[in-house]
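Researcher: Checking consistency across runs. Here is VOC family protein again:
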Amino acid sequence: MDRPFSVERIDHLVLRVRDLARSEAFYGQVLGCAVVRRREHLGLVHLRAGASMIDLISLDGTLGRHGGSGPGSEGRNVDHLCLRVHPFDEAALVAHLAAHGVPVPGPAEVNFGAEGDGLSLYFKDPDGNTVELKGPANGAAQ
């Protein structure tokens, strides 16, 4: 039987966060994601991340309370979020993150992604969620 659909891309990722304002500032100021909509009654902020969305829900909000305890050293809500960036200039990315007080624990490394093997940098958001910034596949145009 043929599947009546095909997956095109990631539509959105939802992260449960301890401090909604702090996380909104991080994803906005550090990563350049713009607020598209706020749903205060749910404790939810929708952010545009290129063609996709990142939704932040407050642990103490209507939606966040349904998920139990929040992310911490012994448990996570998500393994990591990967954002394809352009251009991928490791030195500029590390300097930008450092200017926002975000440490990068190691150099860029080659990882497999939607476009193939390419460089990635990893770091943590304010709640300890891992964020990956992914460049183009090796040999692909930036």
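Researcher: Does this match what you'd expect to see?
Model: One thing to look at in this run: The chain has a mean pLDDT of 87.
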